[in-house]
Design brief:
The protein is of the alpha+beta class. About 35% of the residues lie in helices and about 35% in strands.
Length: about 160
């Protein structure tokens, strides 16, 4: 699969991910009195830094289908024959879905993967499920790249 778009978490979301665990780790590190505990604390700090600074929304496509994820937390793959429509939709993450990250909404009938963006690529399946991948200004380019990645046999409607 080829990466079509990647949107890292924005600064406020990174801060929310980092501050709570950092405080807990700081308290834990101050109470470490064994070498094994120090190694575990060091690994936890490295993991926290990796999650904080390398997380984001990722959209990929290949011959078999489309993959989208909120790295490293959640991901989903859809085969081309499962897709009915791909387009761009403007959302309000807090009002429509209750925040950033991986959010579901009965009102909007879909799942949002957002790193703080309001412009999304909406992937609608043949059974009516909707996945919204927050890519900001890159949403139109991502729809175009998905159109180019789709095999000729795919019966997907693309609008950007």
């Amino acid at each position: 699969m080829r990466t079509l778009a990647r949107r890292p978490f924005n600064a406020p979301l990174r801060a929310m991910l980092f501050v709570g665990p950092a405080v807990i780790l700081l308290v834990g590190v101050l109470n470490v009195d064994t070498p094994a505990g120090a190694i575990v604390a060091l690994l936890a700090v490295v993991l926290l830094v990796v999650v904080t600074f390398f997380s984001g929304v990722l959209l990929r496509a290949g011959v078999k289908g489309v993959s989208f994820s909120l790295v490293p937390f959640w991901g989903r793959r859809l085969r081309w024959e499962q897709l009915a429509r791909v387009d761009v939709e403007e959302v309000r993450p807090f009002e429509d879905f209750g925040g950033w990250g991986i959010k579901g909404s009965q009102r909007r009938h879909g799942i949002l993967l957002s790193a703080g963006e309001t412009r999304t690529v909406r992937l609608t399946t043949t059974d009516g499920r909707r996945y919204l991948v927050g890519l900001g200004d890159g949403a139109e380019a991502a729809v175009h790249a998905l159109r180019e990645s789709a095999p000729p046999s795919a019966r997907v409607e693309f609008t950007a």
